[in-house]
Amino acid sequence: MAKTQTVYICQNCGRQTPKEMGRCPQCNQFNTFKEEIRSKPKRATKPRGLSGDSQPQRLSEIKSDVADRIHLNIAELARVLGGGIVPGSIILVGGDPGIGKSTLLLQVALELAEKQTVLYVSGEESENQIKMRSIRLLEEDTKIPDQLLLVTETNLEVVEQHVQQTIPGILIIDSIQTIYTADSESSAGSVSQVRECASRFRELAKKKGVVVFLIGHVTKEGVIAGPRVLEHIVDTVLYLEGDRYGAYRLLRSVKNRFGPTSEVGVFEMREKGMIEVPNPSESFLAERIINAAGSAVVVTMEGTRPLLVEVQGLTSKTASSFPRRNANGVDFNRLLLITAVLSRRVGVKLFDQDIFANIVGGLKVNEPAADLALAAALASSVWDRPVLADTILIGEIGLSGELRQVGQLAARLREASNLGFKRAIIPLRRKQQGDLPTGMEIVAVRTLRTALDESLMRS
Ligand code: TYD
Ligand code: MG
């Protein structure tokens, strides 16, 4: 029997230690170490990574692959990847269970299999389930392409054999947590298994030029057993996020060796799969009730992309001695801060009010630029004075009730103007720097109090 060894691995960042530690010295998270039993490495002499048969080449003679990207009709995905798929790249698609990862990648498979062999390896669902889903995703008169191959398998060595035999251009692994290799004695889904398997897929991608998509689940506790550990093994990391019960999904690139990061693609989960939302701002505002109290619009930046979203606030007299604060889509502490500034600097009476804050569409807005809109939504609810319908609010709020500058204001205003907004309330300093688009009335103010005067309807 192989000798075994016990190691402790941080489930957050993958750091290994021989002893258990309360706090990880690498990522500073508490209680993230998990015990793993593994066989003592038997092949210490074998080089790690790309298995040792490499040859130095002249950099000047190496082909640049920018032009060779594989075209994708799913434009939102192509954009997030930096303009198509780079051959030989390995891409991790992470996200909560049920968010739509398998659906999106099956759509990718169905599209790309029109031109090349695609091997879809599922360790999660049966052939039958995937077949049913494919039928659902395709238009009625289109048939499933012959070059789309499906196998339900979880053993890495067997998957490698399938790749040898079928020579796919695209390999999709659903999900990396279900794959295991006999080389490692830890159980499937453990950090060392996930890391070992991912390295082997990376080798496959680099040596054979196969594009590998790895699907990775994020665990319930919020720490990512898997994807975090994988981030440095893969070329590109995409996260699919959104409210599972809401319709919208954001696909975000957090690492990309072949393109810009912080790009965002927007999708909507419908009966026929993930449908692109080419005009997200318009969709997010579609159900807004004009002239209703407690609603304000902000332009938030998702990477380089401005998005208009509706921020809602609701206040209601509390029945208990501890009024509730409930933040959905905004940071809880940010809500407390804005509540405090509203009470102390503007004199809005909130101490006996339950407060609910919400971002429409299941989005999360974490940037301070949304402070002003949130404050306006809350004040609007307390005073029952709607925010003027054609007005957007952008600005960070400081503790003294002052408005602070935010980045990329010009891009934000352009997007708002495109969607028909006529007035923008912005921090004063920014206007003095000039270079703002015309076509909108720009109201530059110094304090939250003035901003509210300028944006709420007179009662
Ligand atoms: P799925 O892709 O299986 O999620 P993941 O792989 O990230 O776990 O998506 C699951 C959810 O999506 C499920 O609740 C059903 C829903 N869904 C649709 O709404 N429309 C569709 O066309 C499909 C295929 C799934
Ligand atoms: Mg799935």
CATH topology of the largest domain: Rossmann fold
Which small-molecule species are bound to the chains here? thymidine-5'-diphosphate, magnesium ion
Assigned CATH architecture of the largest domain: 3-Layer(aba) Sandwich
Tally of DSSP β-strands: 21
Regarding CATH, which class of the largest domain? Alpha Beta
Can you tell me about this structure?
The structure is a single chain. The protein is α/β, with parallel strands linked by helices. The chain has 3 domains: 4-39; 67-277, P-loop containing nucleotide triphosphate hydrolases (Rossmann fold, 3-Layer(aba) Sandwich), CATH 3.40.50; 283-455, Ribosomal Protein S5, domain 2, CATH 3.30.230.10. The chain has helices spanning 75-80, 101-112, 127-137, 156-166, 191-208, 227-230, 280-285, 332-346, 371-383, 409-418, 428-432, 448-455; strands at residues 4-10, 16-17, 33-39, 90-95, 118-122, 148-152, 170-174, 211-217, 236-241, 248-256, 264-270, 273-276, 295-302, 305-317, 325-328, 353-359, 391-393, 396-397, 403-404, 423-427, 441-445. The strands form 5 sheets. It has a 9-stranded mixed beta sheet, with helices on both faces. The protein has a 4-stranded mixed beta sheet with strand order 13-14-16-15. β11 (264-270) and β12 form a beta hairpin. α2 (101-112) crosses α3 (127-137), α8 crosses α9 (371-383) and α9 packs across α12. The protein binds thymidine-5'-diphosphate (TYD) and magnesium ion. Magnesium ion is lined by residues 101-102, 124, 174.
